[in-house]
Amino acid sequence: MLTRLEVDGFKNLLGLVVDFGPFTCIAGENGTGKSNVFDAIQFLSLLSSRSLIEAAYEVRGAAGGERSGNPRELFWNGYESQDRHMVLAAEMIVPECVEDDFGREARATSTYLRYEVELGFQPPSGANRTGGLVLLGERLKHLNHSEARDRLRFPHNKVEFRDKVVKKGRNRPDFISTTFHDEQVVINIHQDGGSRGQPKGALASRAPATLVSTVTSSDAPTILAARREMQAWRRLALEPTALRAADRYTDPQTMDVNGQHLPGTLFRIAQQEPHDDPERVYARVSGRLADLVGASVDQLSVVEDELRELLTIQLKESNGLRLPARSLSEGTLRFLALCVLLEDTTVEGVLCMEEPENGIHPAHLPAMVELVRDLAVEPESAPGKDNPFRQVLVNTHSPGIVRAVDTADLLFADTVLQKRPDGHLARALRLRPMTGTWRAASPETDAVALPDILPYLTFAPGAQLTLEGL
């Protein structure tokens, strides 16, 4: 669970600090840079598995494309600034027990951690015409159990939730630290479990990847747990073509971020029904799908074509008409995918969703918001099979979504001028909580009232009144 994100120097995220609860909705007009928050989360996730340059290429570019194509696009003012530098930090609750790349169990000694990474730009040279990234620093440390009370500010049950997921940390040096030796930056991995052995160091200037991405065994269980947590941060981009596709018997039975393998996933979940009755699962999914206003769903199932060895989702309407998934509307398909995801207790971690209202009739938005909110862990109960440890983050520019979301879960995105260390003014993303909510508890918090933001989301671009000074 990602509880806090701090970003400086990544796209238009300058000095951004945001606290997350189990469910967070970021609302604001297009062009403010609210999607850059998801880009930063995705970038951290990629850095836990890929090399620096591979992670840079896979993040959405400055123009909103699928891939960056140029590492400079990830830095604020990347083509003009001579000092391209970014710092990203994430405070997170990680799983206590994970499995390493060799199938062995690893048990973290701390589950409440803070990870920091500093990156610079490596100018083009030789055949490399785009340049690259260089690691300037990396740290992973535990946060004390006593700190959780003040840092985890979203409403939750201490006994059933906080005490279950936050395990007491060790009173030892950092798990990953940055030091200097002979004017060289050295990244160190410290042994877990209280051992006083010598740390393993590596020169940052020669590192092709973060050190957290290199930990694959149970020898460093807490670092491995942090890596597994970041690897579980996903950005859903449900595509109608992928959602409509049938699955072969041999295809994966876990839904991809684009919605591919939806039939296989639903089939697996149904077969794993504890009471050995797949119809129970199909009935729950179809019942939730029927919440979508106007969807006259009578029955839903996965049809097995043994001749072609294919799995296909089929929906039966109340009038008896049977429809395969390829005949359903885009909005119904997206809603169906989220209904299936709700049933999949194996899916944990962070789920980022861009504009979930796309393809949904305005009358159906409350049902969509309720479903998305139900995907997130309930912090008043202990996480487990009936309460998967999932976190959901969405962004939107829809007033209908904003009206349906609890104000405590809402952040308003706009831009504000900031003075940089070099004296230049930069327009950066600002995230403002609603007045009277847990994020607005501090007097210095720049909160905003819900009635003030709805007109801002409704008016045409350029017609809004500024919110400065509210």
Low-confidence stretches: 460-470
Average pLDDT works out at 88
Domain tally: 2
Strand order of the largest sheet: 12-17-18-3-19-20
Report the biggest beta sheet as strand number plus sense, adding barrel if it closes: 6 strands, mixed
Strand content: 25-35%
How large, in whole angstroms, is the Cα Rg?
Answer: 23 Å
Tell me roughly what share of residues is in helical segments.
10-25%
The number of helical runs is 12
Structural class: alpha+beta
* Beta strand count: 20
Separation, N- and C-terminal Cα atoms: 32 Å
Shape: globular
Quick rundown:
The chain is an alpha+beta fold and 470 residues long.
Which key terms come to mind for this protein?
single chain, 470 residues, alpha+beta, 2 domains, 5-stranded antiparallel sheet, 23% helix
Describe what you observe in this structure.
Helices cover 23% and strands 27% of the residues. The C terminus is likely disordered. The strands form five sheets. The protein has a six-stranded mixed β-sheet with strand order 12-17-18-3-19-20, sandwiched between helices. A five-stranded antiparallel β-sheet has the order 2-1-4-7-8, with helices on one face. Strands 13, 14, 15 and 16 form a four-stranded antiparallel β-sheet that branches. It starts with a strand and ends in a 12-residue tail after the last helix. The longest helix is centred in the last third of the chain and has 14 residues. It is an alpha+beta fold and 470 residues long. The chain folds into two domains: 292 residues, no CATH class; 156 residues, Rossmann fold. Strand 1 and strand 2 form a beta hairpin. Helix 7 crosses helix 8, helix 8 crosses helix 9 and helix 9 packs parallel to helix 10.
